[in-house]
Design brief:
By secondary structure, this protein is of the alpha+beta class. The protein is built from 3 helices and 8 strands.
């Protein structure tokens, strides 16, 4: 792990969306929410292929914007996110996957969510988990 994932310095990647515009796939953002707790687990991206896979297999799939490939969450780690339902926003330009995780810690940092820090006075504080 590195300072981005484990540090307390605020280093927001404001270039992420600009980088996404350079990939060849058309994608929309996907918010992923634990259907039992309401906690947001991750925000990722999906193209038509990822959405089709998700709906057909009832597990969360995304389009990896860094690897430019289908990313089935849990395919290698076992941290599968079973779909409860897939919702679309009013403008049909983002999705919400409501899921039930198969494991307690689904973030690659071994936490239940990717949102494990809070900004306080321009520094990051770890949430009590």
């Amino acid at each position: 792990m590195n300072n981005i994932e484990e540090g307390k310095d605020l280093q927001i990647d404001f270039l992420k969306l600009k980088q996404i515009t350079k990939i060849k796939e058309n994608v929309v953002p996907v918010a992923v929410q634990n259907a039992e707790t309401g906690e947001v687990i991750i925000v990722a991206y999906a193209n038509q292929k990822a959405l089709d896979y998700t709906l057909k297999n009832n597990v969360a799939a995304f389009w990896s914007t860094s690897r430019n490939e289908l990313w089935v969450k849990g395919a290698t780690s076992g941290e599968i996110l079973n779909i409860v339902d897939v919702r679309v926003n009013c403008d049909q330009n983002s999705l919400l996957y409501r899921v039930l995780p198969t494991k307690k810690n689904v973030c690659h940092t071994n936490r239940a969510t990717c949102y494990y820090r809070t900004i306080k006075s321009n520094k990051l504080e770890f949430n009590h988990e």
